[in-house]
Design a protein that fits this description.
Structural class: alpha/beta
Number of helices: 17
Shape: globular
Strand order of the largest sheet: 4-10-9-8-7-5-6
Bound molecules: 4'-deoxy-4'-aminopyridoxal-5'-phosphate
CATH superfamily of the largest domain: Type I PLP-dependent aspartate aminotransferase-like (Major domain)
Helix content: 40-55%
Number of domains: 2
CATH class of the largest domain: Alpha Beta
Length: 460
């Protein structure tokens, strides 16, 4: 509960103690967190959050890359409220449908690129990825080639944390836990030019990384491969923008061996890169995409997989059930919020704003303000997503020792200075709400500069 000054009426310590008593946090060392107490977030408005001590924080991460239209949007609240009153729940398993799910499928199809016009619903990015795994394998089974069941993804990719998502992803820290993984998943190197290219030019490296796909296909046998899956821009891996020629080469290789191309748009979708989907920004023509997060601006859990004609025709013409789905696939309230969110995005021309106004402004300002900072080795990003490599030595790209955990030091300074910026190893990442104004971008980046200065002091 909040009092008039926006402070929790239970004290922060009370809530922290309650949280420590019963709550196991995701991706967290809960024991360590319990000792220091979690920060209690109480309110959001626009690009700002408030905590239970009354501190105002600028959210450079849009929650977890999802609150694209900003906090406190009454239109989305209203859509949920109206739908809750009308029909709070019904499923779409057994020969039934409802207006929100049918309308949302059309709304999504109106913004997806190419022929990605058929939509399967899920509740999270991870579930959407599991859907992709099952769907591409089922596609080939329908085509009489059930042996085409290998999926190829990349090291340091993030595709969620269900068993399927963990297996498809390339996060070694996740692979070590909860094994064994799902079989018949192969991985190739990531296209991280700044960190892994050695002396190669961006162009040479783009070709080399795409060639790695062809080598892998030949190694496992082209007729055993179902699909290649990749994030247009890797997000949770540290915001890694591939070389400009990379995706065109990947696309050619997929075509050459008749392999389905899947783009995981969970972060890049819904305007983040200045197009409705990252595939458009990066020049990819995928057969299938996953989406979540920005679909409802994070207001309610909802995710989807959009498939092109090749897959939808196979499924629709195949005279059998697709035995897959979730109780809350296309949940009417989540769907109503997602419809309102997409309409709001259209009304406010938000994708154009990211592409032609705030995105370029943000990218330029980042480089102007932080490019010369002694800690900053490299800045990459498109639209309103960016990754900043922290280095010990700009000239040699030497990194700080792992056990120093420079990213965490920087993240903690941000945390203590009213800015949410995330650390991925030694990379700092930003993904603010798309509705951020120029003044707010200035504030965010000035705060980042202060925190980089404090970080430098901490390690000098
Ligand atoms: N794919 C990508 C590219 C993601 O970034 C994420 C989440 N960060 C997921 C899948 C998983 O989504 P969720 O956490 O909603 O399951």
């Amino acid at each position: 509960m909040l009092d008039d000054n926006n402070k929790a009426s239970a004290t922060t310590a009370d809530i922290q103690a309650l949280d420590a008593e019963h709550h196991l946090h995701p991706f967290t060392n809960t024991g360590a967190l319990n000792k220091k107490g979690a920060r209690v977030i109480t309110k959001g408005e626009g690009v700002y959050l408030w905590d239970s001590e009354g501190n105002k924080i600028i959210d450079g991460m849009a929650g977890l890359w999802c609150v694209n239209m900003g906090y406190g949007r009454k239109e989305l609240v209203e859509a949920a409220n109206t739908q809750m009153n009308q029909l709070a729940y019904y499923n779409t398993f057994f020969q039934t449908t409802h207006t929100p799910v049918a309308e949302l499928a059309r709304e999504i199809a109106s913004v997806t690129p190419g022929d990605l016009n058929h939509i399967f619903f899920a509740n999270s990015g991870s579930e959407a990825i599991d859907t992709i795994i099952r769907l591409v394998r089922q596609y080939w089974a329908i085509k009489g080639k059930p042996y085409r069941n290998i999926l190829i993804s990349r090291e340091n990719a993030y595709h969620g944390s269900t068993v399927g998502g963990t297996s498809l992803g390339g996060m070694s820290g996740m692979h070590k836990q909860g094994a064994p993984l799902v079989p018949n998943i192969e991985r190739i190197r990531q296209p991280y030019w700044y960190g892994e290219a050695g002396d190669m030019s961006e162009e040479e490296f783009g070709i080399a990384c795409a060639k790695a796909l062809e080598e892998k296909i030949l190694e496992v046998g082209p007729d055993n491969v179902a699909a290649f899956v990749g994030e247009p821009i890797q997000g949770a891996g540290g915001v890694i923008v591939p070389p400009a020629n990379y995706w065109a080469e990947i696309q050619k290789i997929c075509q050459k061996y008749d392999i389905l191309l899947a783009a995981d748009e969970v972060i890049c979708g819904f305007g983040r890169t200045g197009s409705w989907f990252g595939s458009e920004t990066l020049g990819i023509t995928p057969d299938i995409i996953s989406m979540a997060k920005g679909l409802s601006s994070g207001y309610l859990p909802i995710a989807a997989v959009a498939v092109g004609d090749r897959i939808s025709n196979a499924l629709i013409e195949h005279d059998d059930d697709f035995n897959h789905g979730y109780t809350y696939s296309g949940h009417p309230v989540s769907a109503a919020v997602a419809i309102a969110n997409i309409r709001l995005m259209k009304e406010e021309n938000i994708v154009d704003y990211v592409a032609n106004d705030i995105g370029p402004y943000f990218q330029q300002k980042l480089r102007d303000t932080l490019g010369e900072h002694p800690l900053v080795g490299h800045i990459e990003g498109v639209g309103l997503v960016a990754g900043i490599a922290l280095v010990k030595d700009k000239a040699t790209k030497e990194l700080f020792p792992d056990d120093l955990d420079i990213g965490m030091i920087c993240r903690d300074h941000c945390f203590n200075n009213g800015l949410i910026m995330r650390a991925v190893g030694s990379r700092m990442v930003l993904s603010p709400p798309l509705v951020i104004s120029r003044d707010e971008v200035d504030e965010l980046i000035e705060k980042a500069r202060l925190c980089f200065d404090l970080t430098l002091k901490s390690v000098s």
